[in-house]
């Protein structure tokens, strides 16, 4: 029976860079999930009888939220609801299911790289029919709706057994529990030369993939160990745990330090990789060769044609604004377009749909292509493996040759996490106020060529997005970028992105922080970081 339940709005149900993210206890409040999901449905049109995809990264509260979404979706008139078995769907796999099953859209339950567990984070994100995150005009409409909602529709039906594959009726809808891995693995098989990668493993190539007790475990074991013949034990921490085993599922140099140390050890594996909570990020470290995500984007774009799925070449590259300009040099040399978008994968969707770009990436360990409409951690790992197998070279050699051909963009991000929101806002206001005065100023060898607050005009739908981060540009091509995170759940996080281009191959072997030392010091001073946040040192350096 359909129930109409009276409710009142919650404050702050505003989707950020990637959906609505809050602490678990916030989501556990009565009506909280229902209000947000009903607000999404209230902003959609013409979905009666269509298909909705639902799945998450397996974190704490995933199963409860899925049951709620199923009841609301059925009561609101969706005809078929596809759910990953066990409530599991990685973010890129969900994007793929939406596309291959021609669903109306999907709801992904995840807080991505944020910690999980009863006191951790949870999140809800709506993806549209192309498989990608809802564009800003949709998320803004949803937020407006959350402020005015008065009722939601649900059912008094029993919970669905998420562990039993097959179909079951819920109200007038059919819920279908699907295998979370199959479609995705088949897609990877079409894009890459599995025989060649199998040959690589058979030749003794050694790899470690850390699934970080998060969603990629089942995917990585199926693809790497079963289909590609990597030795058992290649995939570590492969069981998705509700609290990610108590770890932080962010595959960066702080939370995946052990992989870095392993790859740098004398007898370390040839290739180390990891993904985040929901499977859309990637960390790539060759033996004695850490690849920054910005470089990875450039190197994958330059070599993608070696993989069967991209043999025709790539149409263009898109990167988020703070991502280094290493990819720009590849695009220039290849004679293809390079698009610079605001942070967040939702800005790539239109460019991919229009066929203007094939490969996209962000400095935050996100890379992907037109095969889905999300960034895709395992995809990046497999493309790297296919390139290594095709070129018969180590990651270190590929990286060295790339820098020699294109120059090296030294790059680092300094995060100041959980600082006071007022201070962080004051810091950004201080920077904005000073923008006009910066041009022409000199600091030692560094001269400022210009500074602005990045704004993006979408060439496809004509929408504008302002205030996307402060850019300080230098005469020698160096950059410092400042922005506040839109994925945190407490206080504010300031991100400072620092980049310097080095054409001289003789100077490509420096330690990154040392190579950027003068820019880092200037970056801290220009924004008066200690004054506004009380912090001298960043909490995370990537
Ligand atoms: C961060 C990253 C951004 C990424 C987003 C979602 O956002 O900087 O590049 O798209 O996380 O990634 P922010 O606003 O905190 O800087 V994930 O893995 O959550 O889906
Ligand atoms: Co993620």
TrEMBL record:
Residues 13-152, 184-285, 294-406 form the Alpha-D-phosphohexomutase alpha/beta/alpha domain. Its cofactor is Mg(2+). The keyword Magnesium applies. It catalyses: alpha-D-glucose 1-phosphate = alpha-D-glucose 6-phosphate. Keywords: Isomerase, Magnesium, Metal-binding, Phosphoprotein. GO terms for molecular function: magnesium ion binding; phosphoglucomutase activity. It comes from the Bacteria. Its EC number is 5.4.2.2. It is an enzyme of class 5 (isomerase). One of its GO terms (cellular component) is cytosol. The keyword Oxidoreductase does not apply. GO terms for biological process: carbohydrate metabolic process. Gene3D superfamilies: Alpha-D-Glucose-1,6-Bisphosphate, subunit A, domain 3, Alpha-D-phosphohexomutase, C-terminal domain. Belongs to the phosphohexose mutase family. This is phosphoglucomutase (alpha-D-glucose-1,6-bisphosphate-dependent).
């Amino acid at each position: 029976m359909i129930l109409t339940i009276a409710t009142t709005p919650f404050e702050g149900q505003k989707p950020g860079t990637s959906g609505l993210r809050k602490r678990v206890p916030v989501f556990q409040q009565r009506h909280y999930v229902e209000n947000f999901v009903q607000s999404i449905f209230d902003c959609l049109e013409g979905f009666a009888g269509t298909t909705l995809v639902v799945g998450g990264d397996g974190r704490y509260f995933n199963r409860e939220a899925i049951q709620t979404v199923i009841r609301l979706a059925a009561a609101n008139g969706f005809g078929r609801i596809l759910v990953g078995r066990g409530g599991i769907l990685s973010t890129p796999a969900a994007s793929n299911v939406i596309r291959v099953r021609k669903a109306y859209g999907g709801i992904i339950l995840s807080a991505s790289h944020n910690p999980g567990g009863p006191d951790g984070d949870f999140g809800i994100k709506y993806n549209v029919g192309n498989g990608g995150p809802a564009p800003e005009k949709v998320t803004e409409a949803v937020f407006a709706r959350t402020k005015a909602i008065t009722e939601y529709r649900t059912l008094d039906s029993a919970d669905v057994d998420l562990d039993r594959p097959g179909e079951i009726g819920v109200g007038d809808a059919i819920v279908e529990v699907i295998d979370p891995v199959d479609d995705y693995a088949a897609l990877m098989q079409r894009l890459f030369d599995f025989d060649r990668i199998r040959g690589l493993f058979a030749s003794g190539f050694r790899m470690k993939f850390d699934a970080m007790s998060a969603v990629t475990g089942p995917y990585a074991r199926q693809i790497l160990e079963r289909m590609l013949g990597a030795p058992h034990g290649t995939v570590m921490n492969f069981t998705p745990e509700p609290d990610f085993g108590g770890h932080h599922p962010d595959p960066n140099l702080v939370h995946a330090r052990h992989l870095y140390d392993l790859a740098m050890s004398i007898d370390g594996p040839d290739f180390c990789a990891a993904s985040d909570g929901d499977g859309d990020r990637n960390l790539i470290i060759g033996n004695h060769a850490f690849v920054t995500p910005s470089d990875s984007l450039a190197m994958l774009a330059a070599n993608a044609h070696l993989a069967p799925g991209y043999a025709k070449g790539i149409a263009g590259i898109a990167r988020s604004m703070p991502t280094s300009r290493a990819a720009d040099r590849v695009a220039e040399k290849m004679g293809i377009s390079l698009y610079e978008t605001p942070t967040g994968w939702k800005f790539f969707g239109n460019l991919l749909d229009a066929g203007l770009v094939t490969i996209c990436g962000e400095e935050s360990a996100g890379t992907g292509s037109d095969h889905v409409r999300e960034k895709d951690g395992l995809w990046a790992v497999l493309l790297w493996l296919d390139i290594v197998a095709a070129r018969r070279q180590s990651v270190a050699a590929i990286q060295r040759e790339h820098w020699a051909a294109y120059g090296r963009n030294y790059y680092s991000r300094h995060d100041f996490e959980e600082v006071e929101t007022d201070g962080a806002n004051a810091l950004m206001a201080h920077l904005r106020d000073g923008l006009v005065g910066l041009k022409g100023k000199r600091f030692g060898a560094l001269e400022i060529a210009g500074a602005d607050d990045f704004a993006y005009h979408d060439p496809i739908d004509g929408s504008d997005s302002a205030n996307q981060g402060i850019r300080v540009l230098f005469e020698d091509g160096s950059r410092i970028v400042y922005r506040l995170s839109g994925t945190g759940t407490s206080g504010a996080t300031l991100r400072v992105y620092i980049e310097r281009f080095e054409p001289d191959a003789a100077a490509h072997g420096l330690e990154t922080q040392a190579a950027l030392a003068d820019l880092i010091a200037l970056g801290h001073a220009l924004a008066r970081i200690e004054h506004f946040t009380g912090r001298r040192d960043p909490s995370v350096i990537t």
